[in-house]
Each structure stands twice: as structure tokens, then as C-alpha cells.
């Protein structure tokens, strides 16, 4: 069974639906139940990989608090190894409150705002042998957003993996304020990308900010030195770029319930397919399928297991 190490952020998602009015006068109100589940861009990918049957380990930091214990148990329940997950009593695990309106749109707010655990990753506590012995290493840009130990350690982890010949993938997960990418964050990306074999990201939301206004031109610029670039483009599907050209895979048509985590679980489908020996086109299709399955259901952790994915693909023509 292929061994994947996922490095990065893990938190809890607290889902708070808006009250639902049952009559035009708004005198009858239903208060949907608040829910809590595991979250985090890297953590979502790790759990989705485990559901697909891969041997997954997670490396990161949580607080030694109620949320941190929830994250730890959630990983264990999903079959994710937590040997590399540190619980630090001086830090706080972030709870991301997702306020959901009657159209399904989400408005996110994270708390607490200080001593956030995902920003910390002590290189001395990372089991580097696990990195060098893995069949694949994955992370996301969430932990590179800030000038912290997590940024520096993840860059170092990718150097170690690359030097050991371990395939690596990195999801951009850009955080863009007012249409401008933070120059410090951009510089961090340029430090890690040379050690990335598969660079993934959203076309309009991420690659569009890595250069000029031409998102495909920007993405193509990174498809050098043997690197494969994956452009996720929502309802249009996904595109793979290599030095040899372009491969497209259309999206599957489903009724969309919830898009949170769609990119995270796409990554899992793509990685699982590549590790199984699938072609680039087949891997794009599997990434699309895992993402489509998830967006038709609520929650970032609603991706399929291997049997559910097989059944979904068997019923599709996309």
C-alpha cells in the first residue's frame, strides 16, 4: 500500500446554519443544528486519501486543547497515522466558524486569532525519516501564508523529499487580499516550487494571481523541469500541463450542495490515481470524480471511499 505523508494545517470546522424562516411573516423560525467536524486544507486531503485506501501519515501541530483533541481523534478514526502530529499546550487549535445562509453560501471566521497552532512546526520534532521513506509528500499554501516556523519547516521538508527522490505535490491555496498577492508569500512560493513535482491550484482564484491576467499562461510557466501543473477550473473540470503539452478532463455534472474542501479532496483523488500508475488523463478524471462526489454532499469530509468512487465512476460518462 503506497505511503503518503501530508504536512500542514489541521483545525475544526464549526458549521452554523442561519435560522430558517418557515412563513412569510417570519414568525415561525427553525434553528438548524450546529455541527462540528475536522477541517484544514491539508487535513482534508489526508483524510480523503485514507478513505481511498492509502497509508497516510499527517505531520503538523495542534494545540493541546479541546479542538486539538478532536482533531487527533478525528484523524485516528479515519485511519490517519498521527505520529508526526504535535500537541503543544502553549498554542491554540483554530476553530473555523462557517456561517451558512439559505443559499448555501458560507462566511468563514477563524478563532482564536492568536497563538494559532497551524503556524508552528518545529523542524526538530518532524520525523524526517518518514519524509524520506514516503512514496509521496503533499502540503498546501495555507502554512506558507505567514512568516513562521511552519513556512520554513515545510520548505525544508520539500527539500528533503526532493533530494530523496520522493514525488511531491503542493496545492497553492493562495490567500489574496483586495486582488493583490502578498509579496512575502509569493517569495515563499518561489522557494518551495523548485522542489514540487505536481503543482495544483485553482485557475481563476490562484494561477490568475501568479503573473499577469492570463491564468493559463501563468500556469504554463511553471510546467518546466519535469514539473506537472494541475489547473482546477470548477465546472469546467481540470487541466494538466507538462513540457509536452496540455491534457484536459471535463467536470462531472452533479447537483452542487457544498463546495468547501472540493480542491482538497480533488488532490487526494489525483494523488491516489498517480500512485496506482494511472496516466495524467486518468488521474485528472479521478480528481474530478472525487471532487464531484464531495460537492454533491455537505461537509469538507464527505469524499468517497474506494468503493463509492468506483460506483460513482461506473455511473458516469464525463
TrEMBL record:
It comes from the Bacteria. One of its GO terms (biological process) is phosphate-containing compound metabolic process. Residues 1-304 form the Carbohydrate kinase PfkB domain. InterPro entries: Carboh/pur_kinase_PfkB_CS, PfkB_dom, Ribo/fructo_kinase, Ribokinase-like. Transmembrane segments: none annotated. Signal peptide: none annotated. PANTHER family: RIBOKINASE (PTHR10584:SF166), SUGAR KINASE (PTHR10584). This is Carbohydrate kinase family protein. It comes from Bifidobacterium longum subsp. longum. The lineage of its organism: Bacteria, Bacillati, Actinomycetota, Actinomycetes, Bifidobacteriales.
Amino acid at each position: 500500500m503506497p505511503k503518503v505523508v501530508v504536512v500542514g494545517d489541521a483545525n475544526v470546522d464549526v458549521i452554523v446554519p442561519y435560522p430558517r424562516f418557515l412563513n412569510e411573516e417570519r414568525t415561525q423560525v427553525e434553528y438548524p443544528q450546529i455541527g462540528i467536524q475536522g477541517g484544514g486544507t491539508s487535513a482534508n486531503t489526508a483524510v480523503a486519501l485514507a478513505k481511498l485506501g492509502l497509508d497516510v501519515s499527517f505531520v503538523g501541530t495542534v494545540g493541546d486543547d479541546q479542538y486539538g483533541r478532536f482533531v487527533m481523534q478525528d484523524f485516528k478514526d479515519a485511519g490517519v497515522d498521527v505520529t508526526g502530529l504535535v500537541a503543544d499546550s502553549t498554542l491554540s487549535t483554530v476553530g473555523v466558524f462557517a456561517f451558512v445562509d439559505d443559499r448555501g453560501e458560507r462566511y468563514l471566521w477563524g478563532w482564536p486569532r492568536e497563538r494559532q497552532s497551524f503556524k508552528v512546526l518545529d523542524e526538530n520534532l518532524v520525523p524526517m525519516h518518514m519524509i524520506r521513506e514516503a512514496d509521496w509528500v503533499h502540503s498546501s499554501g495555507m502554512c506558507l501564508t505567514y512568516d513562521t516556523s511552519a513556512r520554513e519547516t515545510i520548505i525544508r521538508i520539500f527539500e528533503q523529499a526532493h533530494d530523496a527522490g520522493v514525488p511531491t505535490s503542493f496545492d497553492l491555496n493562495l490567500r489574496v487580499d483586495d486582488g493583490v498577492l502578498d509579496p512575502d508569500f509569493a517569495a515563499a512560493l518561489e522557494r518551495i516550487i523548485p522542489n514540487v513535482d505536481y503543482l495544483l491550484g485553482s485557475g481563476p482564484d490562484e494561477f490568475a494571481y501568479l503573473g499577469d491576467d492570463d491564468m493559463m499562461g501563468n500556469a504554463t510557466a511553471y510546467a518546466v523541469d519535469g514539473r506537472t501543473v494541475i489547473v482546477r477550473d470548477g465546472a469546467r473540470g481540470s487541466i494538466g500541463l507538462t513540457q509536452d503539452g496540455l491534457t484536459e478532463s471535463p467536470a462531472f455534472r452533479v447537483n452542487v450542495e457544498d463546495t468547501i474542501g472540493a480542491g482538497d479532496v480533488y488532490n487526494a483523488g489525483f494523488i491516489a490515481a498517480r500512485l496506482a500508475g494511472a496516466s495524467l488523463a486518468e488521474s485528472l478524471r479521478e480528481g474530478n470524480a472525487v471532487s464531484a462526489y464531495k460537492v454533491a454532499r455537505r461537509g469538507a469530509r464527505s469524499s468517497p471511499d474506494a468503493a463509492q468512487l468506483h460506483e460513482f465512476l461506473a455511473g458516469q460518462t464525463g
